[in-house]
Amino acid sequence: MKRQNLSGAVVLLAALSAATLAGQIITASVEGIVLDPAGATVPGAKLRATDTATGLEARAVTGADGRYSFPSLPPGGPYTITIEAAGFNTEERTGITLLVNQNLRLDFTLKIGSTTETVEVSGAAPLVESTTASMGQVITSDRIVDLPLNQRNAYSLIFLAPGVQGSVSFTYNSDNFSINGGRPGSTDILVDGIPSAPNLANPIVGIAVFPPVDAVQEFKVQTSMYSAEFGRSGSGIINLIYKSGTNQFHGSAYEFLRNSDLDSNSFYSNKNGTPLPSFKRSQFGGTLGGPVEIPKVYQGKDKTFFFVDYEGLRQGSATTLQTTVPTAAQRSGDFSQTFNSAGALVTIYDPNTTVAQGSAYVRTPFPGNLIPANRIDAVAKNIVQYYPQPNASGLPFSGTNNYYVATTGVEDTNSVDAKVDENLSDRSRFFARYSRLSLNQPAPKELPSAVAVAQNSPDNQAQTNNSAAFDYTLTLSPTDLLEFRYGFARIKLDYTSISLGFNPTQLGFPSAIAANADHLLFPGIAPANYYSLGNPGQGDTRFPGFDSHILAVENTRILHAHTLRFGWEGRLFRSNDTESGSSTGNFSFSAALTQGPNPNAASTTAGNSIATLLLGGGSGSMLIDSKDGATESYYFAAFVQDDWKVSRKLTLNAGLRYDLDLPRTERYNRMETFNPTIASPLAGPAGIAGLKGRGPEGRDGVCRRKRRQPAPVRSPMDEFRSALGLRLPGNAEHGHPRGIRHILCRDPAAGQRDHRQRGLQRRDRLQFQPQRPDAVLVPQQSVSDRIQQAGGQYPGSPDGHWKLVREPGDRRQYRSLHGKLGYRHPAPVAGRHSHRRRLRRQPRRKPEQIG
Predict the structure, then answer these.
(1) Strand extents, DSSP E, 389-427
(2) Among 195, 398, 430, 476, which one is most buried in terms of CB atoms within 10 A?
(3) Residue 503, by phi and psi: left (phi above 0), alpha (psi -120 to 50) or beta?
(4) Cα(236)–Cα(101) distance, rounded to whole angstroms?
(5) Is the pLDDT of residue 454 over 90?
(6) Is there a shared CATH topology between the 28-122 domain and the 135-242 domain?
């Protein structure tokens, strides 16, 4: 299958290369009209534009209307334009500096005389661009280098352009700026003409190239009314180009140092007796550019040039954490010294003492506000040992905010770029560039080393970006120019949790959780108003890669007063994402289970989430294979742009662009959809005529997905599943010894009837909220409930405890909708915890196989 995917990409590139494709303009152009002293046009005049830094020459000839054009010149310079015409003096215009995507209008009036006489005119190009209606702002290299920039991020200068707001950093998903009110994350970022903002897992783009300030020639922020060459943007265009080498060697070396030696400590650090955390930032690097010269082998002056740069960042910044952790007494079940902010005792109520009192229910507190040792859940007892001891006095009475730590967050980056320019002849040239950025942000240490494995976010974050660009320009004639462009950008992430490798079985959780987890992590434990342990949330451990490729060709032709640009472009996007998705469990605990005397009324003097944790009364979920996907999509565009010089004072810009942005498909056929219009297989068992809704089977027009290999043959009405969950065992379960046995469940739709299935009971579990023995299950007669009754079971709970039941092996099931269960219970509704894993017959690929 992988071979077929690559073949598909090759077919795309081959098909695009056979057509005339379009790329974004990364060059500049000069055009104008040549007149004699009487104001008449001068046809047949010969013009030559020379880049004095590299020796690059471009030639043009005026037409019958006296017009000329240099349609593609590298930005920079300075340029010298020389004009020769019979019967007129030769004229030279020097000191012309061109900007990226600039269309400079430069008219000449020749003087009568001999061509051997030269008239030299020195001066900068006019600042007003009168040949295009595009709105934007160019940030030149002088401003880039001279203006102060925090962390020297060149993208920070985009906020100098009107209509740009937001923020930007060095991380891959920092495209958090908006241009003229457009959606953040939808800006097309072009680096040397190559899109450098790949699609991420979410429908936004990232940033793959972060050029050092000293390596940027200039960039232009195009805010509105840009020409048809540009597309696939919902929030403007950023057009950035790297510097190139010249005929002279130029280089730079620098270091910017900042530290906290003269900084004062914060108020809270002083209050808690914590010294000032260290802050150090050292940003250093250098650039070097010039001609490629190999003594006695190759002389690259006026022909071959190179430019390289390196930049490193070593930063340690202060970060603080102030939170609340349980005291030693609370961990043992002693809440006799737990007070609220007013100094009143917080009473802990026993949920097992809930009784009816009139139309309501009441509870009684634990004697002495102490939870008996035999009531403390074994798993919870192990969990609370991973809390650090309080190291601060906290607030008066309540003692909250009793843990404070000041530490250092580290950020290290290394970036390198290399660019080669080659002037093959006066008619053709090309350049190639490669860029790489590596960023490492290890998680700051907020907990003591003995319990560091239970630390909450952030995680260890590593990022590697690679980008390459190739551009070839061929002048077919003075009025016909062809540009070919290819490039790619890739973002690779390596995010790992501090607790990666921690087996939750150590806490007493069933081994089945670890056996089915995507990654072994410390489970998420979140008591209300206390520090949360672990962080197995989605994205905490992930190894995705995001790619973009472009192949483009653009043709420019000058036809009298018309400058035509037309062509096509094609892009390939791939997003390979792997995320853990709470596969070892994410549990929350509130004070509701231990509040009272009215169990349904919250109070500041009753209930505590740590007490709920100790009783095992939590709720949560586990999620497996929640966001593992390898998607790809294609984008095609065609455009034609005409800049028509209607007169010397009027230019009309007209363009047409057609974009075809195809939706994503799963490269390994692991994505399904749900169609609500197909008849449901549960219509008969549920007794609901006309019930619709089911998932697709095969490629029958229902599921719009890509299939690159034959699907396994199976019945259109079944699928394979493996399930692991927590459920309420029935009456026959109560009192039986541990082991494999039948589980009796109650089906309220069919009366007292046994539904037997094999399962493995585990009593070493984290209990959820206990139920009363006389709890009554009340089915709500909605459509979803009737479906659930037809295809599912409603277990009771005579002993008031949740127990883990494992359904071993793969078993064949009909697809079903999951309805709701309604419980009438004197205590708050018990939590429910389950996870289900769908298996397909094709082999499961590891993350490294789809990167």
Answers:
(1) 403-423
(2) 195
(3) beta
(4) 14
(5) yes
(6) no
- For residues 199 and 608, what is the distance between their CA atoms, to the nearest angstrom? 45
Alpha-carbon distance of 242 to 724, in angstroms, equals: 55
Is residue 27 scored above 90 in pLDDT?
A: no
pLDDT, mean over the chain: 75
Q: CA torsion sign, 64 to 66 to 67 to 70? A: positive
Q: Is the peptide bond before 458 cis (omega within 30 degrees of 0)?
A: yes
Q: How many CA atoms lie within 13 A of 604 on its CB side?
A: 8
- Contact call for residues 144 and 157 (beta carbons, < 8 A): yes
138-148: pLDDT as tens digits: 777 777 777 77
- DSSP state string for 182-196: PPTT--EEEETTEE-
Give every CB contact of residue 230 below 8 A, 6+ residues apart in sequence: 24, 188, 222, 237
Asked if 135 contacts 61 with a C-beta cutoff of 8 angstroms, the reply is: no
- Three-state SS string across 677-712, please? EEECCCHHHHCCCCCEEECCCCCCCCCCCCCCCCCC
Interval 185-196 mean pLDDT: 88
Rounded to two decimals, what is the model's pTM?
0.69
Residue 702 to residues 311, 680, 694, Cα–Cα distance (Å): 52, 14, 10
Question: What's the token pair of residue 31?
Answer: 């055009």
Contact 814, 682 (CB under 8 A): yes
**What fold is seen in the domain 28-122?**
Immunoglobulin-like (2.60.40)
Q: What is the DSSP letter of 746?
A: B
CATH superfamily of 135-242: TonB-dependent receptor, plug domain (2.170.130.10)
Pick the closest to residue 495 from 464, 523, 525 (CA basis): 464
List, for residues 488-542, the tens digit of each pLDDT value: 999 999 988 888 889 999 999 999 889 988 888 899 999 999 999 987 666 678 8
CB atoms within 10 A of CB 735: 8
The three-class DSSP label of residue 144 is: helix
Q: How far apart are CA 628 and CA 513, in angstroms?
A: 19
pLDDT of residue 427: 85
User: What angle is formed at CA 424 by the lines to CA 421 and CA 430, rounded to 5 degrees?
Assistant: 40
User: What residues does each domain of the chain span?
Assistant: 28-122, 135-242, 325-401+586-621, 720-847
* Cα-based distances in Å from 371 to 390, 515, 537, 612, 811: 21, 33, 31, 10, 43
